[in-house]
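Lab notebook, bench 4. Still working through the backlog of constructs that have no structural model yet. Next entry is a single chain of 71 residues. Request: give me the structure tokens for it.
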Amino acid sequence: MVVVVALVAWGLQLMQSASDKQEFSLMLAGCLVCSAAAGLATVMMITLTGPDAPLVHVLQAGAQAIDEPQW
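Model written out:
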């Protein structure tokens, strides 16, 4: 999550610099960096909450351990 926030901050800094210098290429670079951050955040959310996510398997294993009787 820290990487996503850092990418967004960097992208916004590039866009501010582009606005100050009136350069289209910096504005485009800032947009690309921000879109990469959004893509990374989307992949992280899918990875952590999808049907085959490691977090889901850990929660299911814990639920099964609680449901099984201890003889």
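Notes after review: Residues 24-49 form the longest helix (26 residues). The chain is about 85% helix and 0% strand. Flag for follow-up if needed.
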